[in-house]
């Protein structure tokens, strides 16, 4: 079996859109609740195209996010790489789950993502120091169905021929 | 990799990545700016006339004050010459705009639209019309990131305008609140005291207003006062800031001696406009 490689352009576009959503200005009160768009998009595409979207894609996208957010270089990159690795391991199961069951998995993955990103922050002496840090776990999980149906429709329209 | 960054080795990598991601920041910033411009163009004529009137009177007042300021500056320079201390450095100021992008919600940073192309350098003071805002944290070709004084990792050497007491103002992560640390219990600090930059850190020039003390507590059994202050500049609301270029080579020791001499006239200038 030949491995399908190369990142299709709709995937690149959604990754860019996710990065833009990560820095788009929203009211201050809502800022801690911003869902982790990039992580959601990566989870979906890693699940849909496990041979195309891998750890390296996640790492590079994470580096971009680090730069955009002015955070420690590598903090989101490593967390996203680990999350993507787990998705790659369980993608056959994840694909056939109903959406509510996927949401449980996404919640766990998000918690892991935030935990991994918290670690370097704690080491370098700037922990967020607020329980609000964990709010994106909840909001991202709630945003998952939206993301799932949106990206699935996109895949069906443009990328049905790909594996 | 994350650890590597602590020793500042990856600044170049970060700069390269930043120039890749800069178009994205601009792309996010542009629509936001366009919308605010559309709203601006719909302001009514009366509003503009009122604003114009207010600005005109403010301008007149400021120019009148400027007249006296120049005289004071000359006098100050002469007195300094008599004392053989350093001349006040010439300063260059340029306006920079904030890019409408959000950063890490738990850090206090902003993105400015000026970078290395405009001679912005790391550690450069950022102020606005009301007071000190922060300093430049990293620079790219056409943009830069500034750290606000309210960030928990930012400390700023200040002195009290009333008493000349020196101290350190540290951010709390809340843009409306700063803390003054390590002031002994017996020192004279009162709510309402104005805190100015002391220039001792070597980064900020002296005598820029920073914050006003809001509360002073004497906690039992603690060696230091617990002092809270409110920044004079609206850190989370300004859309435009001023970048400051100064001569960094002002000698430290003469400033020390000059401080005591400086403070009374400073206070006088502060109080005089209120009396008429």
Q: Which short descriptors sum up this protein?
A:
heterodimer; A: 163 residues; mainly alpha; globular; B: 276 residues; alpha+beta; 6-stranded antiparallel beta sheet; 6-stranded antiparallel beta barrel; 3 helices; 12 strands; 24% strand; disordered C terminus
Give the averaged pLDDT of chain B, no decimals.
79
Structural class of chain A: mainly alpha
Give the largest interface: A-B, 35 and 35 residues
Tally of helical runs of chain A = 6
Major sheet description of chain B? 6 strands, antiparallel
Proportion of residues in extended strands of chain A: under 5%
Which structural class should the secondary elements of chain B be placed in?
Answer: alpha+beta
Helix content of chain A: 55-70%
Averaged pLDDT of chain A: 87
Give the DSSP E fraction of chain B (strand runs of 2 or more residues). 15-25%
H/E topology pattern of chain B: HHEEEEEEEEEEEEH
Number of helices of chain B: 3
CA-atom Rg of chain B in angstroms:
21 Å
The description of the largest β-sheet of chain A is: none
Question: Distance between the terminal alpha carbons of chain A, to the nearest Å?
Answer: 12 Å
By DSSP, the count of extended strands of chain A is: 0
Shape verdict of chain B = globular
Description:
The complex is a heterodimer of chains A (163) and B (276). Chain A is mainly α and 163 residues long. Chain A has one domain. Chain A has helices at 9-23, 37-48, 55-69, 75-96, 99-123, 135-158. In chain A, helix 3 packs across helix 4 (75-96) and helix 5 packs across helix 6. By secondary structure, chain B is α+β, with helices and mostly antiparallel strands. In chain B, the strands form 2 sheets. Chain B has a 6-stranded antiparallel β-sheet, with no helix packed on it. A 6-stranded antiparallel beta barrel of chain B has the order 6-7-8-11-10-9. In chain B, a hairpin with a 4-residue loop joins strand 3 and strand 4. The chains are: A mainly alpha (163), B alpha+beta (276). The interface between A and B is medium-sized, with 35 and 35 residues.
């Amino acid at each position: 079996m030949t491995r399908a490689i190369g990142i299709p352009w709709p995937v690149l576009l959604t990754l860019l859109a996710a990065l833009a959503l990560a820095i788009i200005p929203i009211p201050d009160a809502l800022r801690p609740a911003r869902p982790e768009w990039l992580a959601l998009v990566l989870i979906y595409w890693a699940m849909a195209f496990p041979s195309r979207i891998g750890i390296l894609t996640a790492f590079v996208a994470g580096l971009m996010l680090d730069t955009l957010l002015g955070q420690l270089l590598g903090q989101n990159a490593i967390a996203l790489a680990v999350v993507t690795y787990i998705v790659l391991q369980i993608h056959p199961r994840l694909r056939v789950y109903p959406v509510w069951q996927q949401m449980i998995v996404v919640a766990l993955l998000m918690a892991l993502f935030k935990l991994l990103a918290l670690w370097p922050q704690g080491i370098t002496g700037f922990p967020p120091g607020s329980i609000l840090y964990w709010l994106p776990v909840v909001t991202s999980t709630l945003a998952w169905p939206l993301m799932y149906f949106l990206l699935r429709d996109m895949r069906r329209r443009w990328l049905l021929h790909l594996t | 990799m994350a650890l590597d960054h602590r020793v500042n080795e990856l600044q170049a990598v970060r700069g390269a990545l930043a120039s890749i991601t800069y178009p994205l920041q601009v792309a996010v910033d542009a629509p936001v700016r366009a919308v605010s411009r559309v709203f601006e163009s719909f302001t009514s004529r009366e509003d503009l006339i009122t604003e114009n009137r207010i600005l005109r009177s403010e301008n007149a007042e400021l120019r009148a004050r400027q007249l006296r300021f120049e005289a004071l500056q000359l006098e100050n320079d002469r007195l300094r010459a008599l004392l053989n201390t350093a001349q006040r450095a010439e300063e260059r100021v340029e306006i920079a705009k904030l890019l409408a992008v959000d950063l890490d919600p738990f850090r206090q940073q902003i993105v400015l639209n000026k970078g290395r192309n405009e001679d912005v350098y790391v550690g450069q003071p950022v102020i606005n019309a009301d007071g000190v805002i922060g300093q430049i944290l990293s620079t790219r070709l056409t943009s830069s990131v500034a750290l606000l004084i309210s960030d928990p990792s930012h400390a700023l050497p200040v002195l009290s305008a009333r008493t000349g007491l020196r101290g350190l103002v540290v951010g709390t992560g809340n843009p409306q609140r700063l803390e003054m640390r390590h002031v002994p219990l017996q020192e004279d600090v009162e709510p309402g005291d104005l805190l100015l930059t002391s220039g001792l850190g070597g980064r900020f020039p002296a005598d820029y207003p920073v914050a006003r003390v809001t509360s002073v507590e004497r906690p039992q059994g603690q060696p230091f006062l617990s002092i809270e202050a409110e920044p004079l500049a609206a850190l989370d609301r300004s859309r435009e800031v001023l970048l400051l270029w100064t001569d960094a080579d002002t000698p430290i020791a003469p400033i020390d001696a000059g401080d005591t001499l400086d403070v009374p006239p400073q206070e006088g200038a502060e109080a005089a406009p209120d009396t008429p």
